[in-house]
Amino acid sequence: MENEEELLESLILGGIIGVALGAIITKDKSGTGLGAIAGAAILASFRANERAKKLNLPMLVEEDNILYQIEKDGTKKVIKEIPKSSVKIKSHFTIN
Questions:
Q1: What is the mean pLDDT of each run of 10 residues along the chain (96 residues)?
Q2: Are 26 and 68 in a shared domain?
């Protein structure tokens, strides 16, 4: 597992995942900057998750508009319900 994590981290750091995400998002090569930002965010989340596990810290996750605290042993505790947003998000965006 550690080798897979190192591989993922090196792919993100190398920009491969970021560029691929940008290409998927924009369907061409104009989204490489956006993809790089997304890749950096994925790497930061991944590292934070790994540090939390090592420090035995609980994690917060959202599922179906409910915020849960997940303990190291896997037990889930409901923290609060999150109201559904009434904001309509566009299905397509134009990146300039």
A1: 61 59 59 65 78 82 91 89 85 75
A2: no
